Amino acid sequence: MADGNRDKNQEFDITATAQWQALAEHQPEVAALHLRDVFAEDPNRGDELTVDVGDLHIDYSKQRVLRETLTKLVDLARAADVEGKRDAMFAGEHINNTEDRAVLHTALRLPADATLSVDGQDVVGDVHEVLDRMGAFTDALRSGEWKGYTGKPIETVINIGIGGSDLGPAMVYQALRHYVTGSIHCRFVSNVDPADLVATLDGLDPETTLFIVASKTFTTLETITNASAARQWLVKALGSDDAVSKHFVAVSTNAEKVSEFGIDTANMFEFWDWVGGRYSVDSAIGLSVMAAIGKEAFGEFLAGFHIVDDHFRTAPLEANAPVLLGLIGLWYDNFWNVASRVVLPYSNDMSRFSAYLQQLTMESNGKSVTKSGDHVTADTGEVFWGEPGTNGQHAFYQLLHQGTRMIPSDFIGFATATDDLPVLSASDDPLTAQSDGSMHDLLMSNYFAQTKVLAFGKTAEEVAAEGVEERLVPHQVMPGNRPSTSIMSHELTPSVVGQLIALYEHQVFVAGAIWGINSFDQWGVQLGKSQAKELLSVITSADSPAAQSDSSTDALVRWYRKQRGRTP
Ligand SMILES: O=P(O)(O)OC[C@H]1O[C@](O)(CO)[C@@H](O)[C@@H]1O
Predict the structure, then answer these.
(1) Annotated catalytic, 363?
(2) How many angstroms is it from 103 CA to the middle of ligand 1?
(3) Active site includes 387?
(4) Which residues of the chain have pLDDT under 70?
(5) CA distance 206 to 155
(6) Does 394 qualify as catalytic in the annotation?
(7) ipTM of this model?
(8) How far from chain centre, in Å, is Cα 471?
(9) What is the C-alpha to C-alpha distance for residues 159 and 210, in angstroms, rounded to an integer?
């Protein structure tokens, strides 16, 4: 099926291929096996079903796959021409066919001496020109050379954005808490619920606050509404509209709208239509992060992405981390009818990572038609969710361990703590107690225990052998056979955060390429936006509104209007 000359945007039915069929026939054989037996028969898999990329050590041996399964999955990837599609993306072909755009987030992390010309434009030159401007601006902020309207240096940067213009920087800023150097601290506002802006501005001094209005389109309702309210807060406090130029900068692809908003385009940091919002944290959208951690650490962050990009672009599919993990996700999604994957960072600093991944994965692959416009013939789009360990253990792990559903998990953990404390007991004298115990070791012992218990469980015999009352045995049996991937790294550094993001970006690509969908548009978010505009006039009109299309919405609108003191 793979054909280098095939139009990358003209899709065929992947489920009709022999490779798909082979996997469908193979699944019952694997489903009949317990991971206990799989490990007993293949004792080296724990050492061998692993892949290292950059600073990431990835163990997928606890997945419900045999070596043969992996071969069949790779065959499927070849049948779908994943390699050809990947090369087309890296080369800047217009693989986002519904918007006729290149998809080049990988270009955002190319080193300055790389070359890439797309549609006649020197992309690497453009990227580094903006990076240099971001560097000069954040240097000025961090050194105090950039002063607010009243002459005071900036202390707080507020990023106003939503979706990809918020989730990435907010997640990375938190993950790299230890790399915040200098005196700039960041806050993030996204929700059009005014509670977000009000709570974020609480206690801030307008004289030392700078807003980054981050929006690819610069038309997003939430962002423009929040930015306008923030401008009013600032101008009222500082007494002049002239203050805006010292306290507002923009990140966007839309210079015209930025200027219409009243921000001087000299204070605008550009990116390009070939950067999808959910792939943009490594573009100027990361300006707040750069302000906090500095341009050098931001450079390391970009270099981390690039390590994984190079690996994805060049490693054979059989040893290619994003390919293997993307394929394993698709294995469950399509051949086990398992729709969700839980991501569990054993790192409190990564507590926003799952939220970030939700947009990356679900806005990308939540599609029902192929690039050719035909209805897909297999389910698409894994549901991603998660919370950091160990918190999740005391919330939803019960279902992971003993529920009827199998939910594959990704565990992420680090050898070195970003913070560590000794383990003390409640009876120790806090003033004198010493301990060799490390809370980080305690955290990681939970990581290892959970992946082990999920995979291997505990049989009824083992439970009974512990002297458990017979009637309680069934309740204490741990079925096991619940798959997981363990992703480990030495430390949560800027480079490692970049590597982790790229690892998931390319998994999304692999699954999308096999399904034949466009992972880079998001038409499904439009209708809700336009109907919200229409409904705003309905819920706020002075007179009773005319009936809308359905009795439920009409009744809800009447109820709401009444609560707000308007004629129902
Ligand atoms: O950066 P913008 O243009 O404000 O868009 C914000 C977000 O809105 C979306 O278009 C979805 O509504 C995302 O794709 C995007 O990240």
Answers:
(1) yes
(2) 16
(3) no
(4) 1-9
(5) 10
(6) yes
(7) 0.98
(8) 44
(9) 9
